[in-house]
């Protein structure tokens, strides 16, 4: 799930990106306007010009930005119509991101969901983002012949498991939780996809996928 952040953003977009980054590291409540201005390099007086709704608007838009960014990466990974490879890319994106941040940066969408009592609009944006991620995987599985209800259940499990693994990985300062969860999800998806293949194809598909459990 490789995705470029693009070139230099305009001040408004840069403030949204900085807010998403700070939410990943500090959560919503601990992210202040002063932090956003310092991180983004935006003019101090511009924040209310761009976000007249104040911090609530900024956090909501940062949550939507984070959700859209991940969704775009998922959609690109699923272009080859291979849900297993897309799962691997999704898990590897988060594992690598955590390692590069020294396990300080989690998921901004999860941060908005967890602290949503203070910002219902951001919590709603988080729910919509999670739903979109689920739909992307569910539709990919359906295109491979998995029944609609089963595909949605698997997609929900996938998103929930990876999000939970991110929390464990941060707490344990290790990428192992994500690796283990990805391995189990890979097995579940492979089995679901295998049910829609001829027996000879099922055998060949299951043979190479044995990862180390360590």
> Which sheet architecture does the biggest sheet show?
none
Q: Hey, roughly how much beta strand do the residues contain?
A: under 5%
Overall 3D form: elongated
N to C succession of SSEs? HHHHHHHHHH
The CATH class label is Mainly Alpha
Helix content class:
over 70%
- Mean pLDDT score, rounded? 89
CATH topology name = Tetracycline Repressor, domain 2
| Beta strands, count | 0
Rounded to an integer in angstroms, the radius of gyration calculated over CA atoms is 19 Å
In short:
This protein is mainly α and 214 residues long. It contains ten helices and no strands.
Notable features of this structure?
single chain, 0% strand, Tetracycline Repressor, domain 2, mainly alpha, 214 residues, elongated, disordered C terminus
Topology:
Layout: H1 11-26, H2 33-40, H3 47-50, H4 54-77, H5 83-100, H6 108-114, H7 120-143, H8 148-172, H9 176-194, H10 199-206
Task: Explain what this protein looks like in three dimensions.
The protein is an all-alpha fold and 214 residues long. It has a single domain (11-206), classed as Tetracycline Repressor, domain 2 (Orthogonal Bundle), CATH 1.10.357. Helices cover 71% and strands 0% of the residues. The radius of gyration is 19 Å and the shape is elongated.
